[in-house]
Amino acid sequence: MPPEPFDGNSPHVLLVNPWIHDFAAYDFWANPLGLLILASILRQQGARVSYIDCLDRFHPKASLKDPGARNGRGPYLKTPIPYPPGLEDIPRRFSRYGIRKEWFARDLASLSAPDLVLVTSMMTYWYPGVRETIGDIKSAFPDVPVVLGGVYATLCRDHAVKTSGADRVISGSGVDQILNLVAEYTGWSAAPVFHPEDFNTWPFPALDLQHRIPFVPLLTSLGCPFACAYCASRVLNPFPMKRDPARVVAEIRYWHDRFGVLDFAFYDDALLFDAQRHAVPLLEGIIRSGIKARFHTPNALHIREISDALAKLIKKAGFHTIRIGLETGDFSGRSGNLDRKVTQSDFVRAVSSLKKAGFQKDRIGAYLLVGLPGEAAADVEASIKLVKASGITPVPAHYTPIPHTALWTQAVKASRYDLENDPVFTNNALSPCRKEGFDWRKLSHLKKLASA
């Protein structure tokens, strides 16, 4: 549906994706998808929308060499900054990732004052970047209300209320709150032309607000049927929803034909769940469309769903980078303390199916969690060796303690930091669930073992 025309009463809403403060950050097909969906909804409803991405690798003033050369991925610009209190002993450089502060100031100054500013948030330990972003917005527009949402705002709401500097913090999905929120702050109201509970009525995200579209993140569903001890999916998306596969194919065609996009990253938490009614029709639709693109699965595919037939469809549809969620190679008793989604036979069958379909070793990666509470280094090494012996690539994924998950209490007890009072200490780069201090040697050993 085309956007409603602007009128004199239409509000001006600025949406901002904040900086990252961290020891390392890299754009692995990352976009603030929720924020861009809200931008599209507001635009469709007739609001005037502006967008600033503090992580923009394609900012007009940036001069990064080939920032989108690796299938749309690439490094962020970074600026060294002081350590957050309590992290001064970590022998790694701490940086602000994203555009220069002066560029952000100029971008803000180039806008007419908005009626409302919406800021998103991702990893809980990235909140210092959120706080700095909001501070700069407040300096530019001191009388404009700033509303914070997103992952950090949902999982650490009390902390966000106290420290972010936002005038309002909202938890959960913004889709069912956005119109009432804008009405509350601006007095503007518009009859919704979409249904918050029907994923198929949501407009495509407003990726065209970016300076470039090097790739497109895709969501075909929200939520996950599993309840893994380390994952917050059920907290962030408690009401599962699926899109019509034909609607997803139409979106892929839209970005491919209109903007020449070749790389698409699926960010579903459970893309293959109930595959015969969801993934199979989707894959068949992509194949029938004739679209020649590269598809990636950075959020990992569920291993137990992968069969010979499904692997063939995945390959034929044009999937390029496969990640599967193994998490650990220790299959004894994992159902009691980690997850219930994979057995050893599931893993062996899935790897065999993917290889028979034609995927090479460097295209199949198995995520392995590193740094779990009570985890022994020998267990991680054994998992890495098991994956390598299967003929695919181990991908160590360092564990981040997340509030409201089943492992949170164990993580708090295992940590040398005060995780409950400051999310900055949940940064996986710190190996936060160890009583011992940061050890470069152990991290380097595991990295070398996985890449050898």
Please characterize this protein's 3D structure.
- With 452 residues, the protein is an alpha/beta fold.
- The protein has helices spanning 33-45, 101-109, 127-140, 151-155, 157-163, 178-186, 233-236, 245-259, 279-289, 308-317, 334-337, 344-357, 377-389, 408-414, 440-451; strands spanning 12-17, 20-22, 26-27, 48-53, 74-75, 78-80, 95-97, 116-119, 146-148, 168-169, 216-218, 221-222, 241-242, 263-266, 294-296, 319-327, 364-370, 393-398.
- A six-stranded parallel beta sheet has the order 11-14-15-16-17-18.
- The longest helix has 15 residues, at 245-259.
- Residues 1-5 have low confidence and may be disordered.
- Major sheet characteristics: 6 strands, parallel
How many distinct helices?
Answer: 15
CATH topology title of the largest domain: TIM Barrel
Any guess at the CATH architecture of the largest domain?
A: Alpha-Beta Barrel
Brief sketch in words of this structure:
The protein is of the alpha/beta class and 452 residues long. It is built from 15 helices and 18 strands. The strands form 5 sheets. The chain has a 6-stranded parallel beta sheet with strand order 11-14-15-16-17-18. Strands 4-1-8-9-10 form a 5-stranded parallel beta sheet, sandwiched between helices. It has a 3-stranded antiparallel beta sheet with strand order 2-7-6.
Topology:
Layout: E1 12-17, E2 20-22, E3 26-27, H1 33-45, E4 48-53, E5 74-75, E6 78-80, E7 95-97, H2 101-109, E8 116-119, H3 127-140, E9 146-148, H4 151-155, H5 157-163, E10 168-169, H6 178-186, E11 216-218, E12 221-222, H7 233-236, E13 241-242, H8 245-259, E14 263-266, H9 279-289, E15 294-296, H10 308-317, E16 319-327, H11 334-337, H12 344-357, E17 364-370, H13 377-389, E18 393-398, H14 408-414, H15 440-451
Parallel strand pairs: 1-4, 1-8, 8-9, 9-10, 11-14, 14-15, 15-16, 16-17, 17-18
Antiparallel strand pairs: 2-7, 3-5, 6-7, 12-13
Helix pairs in contact: 8-9, 9-10, 10-12, 13-15
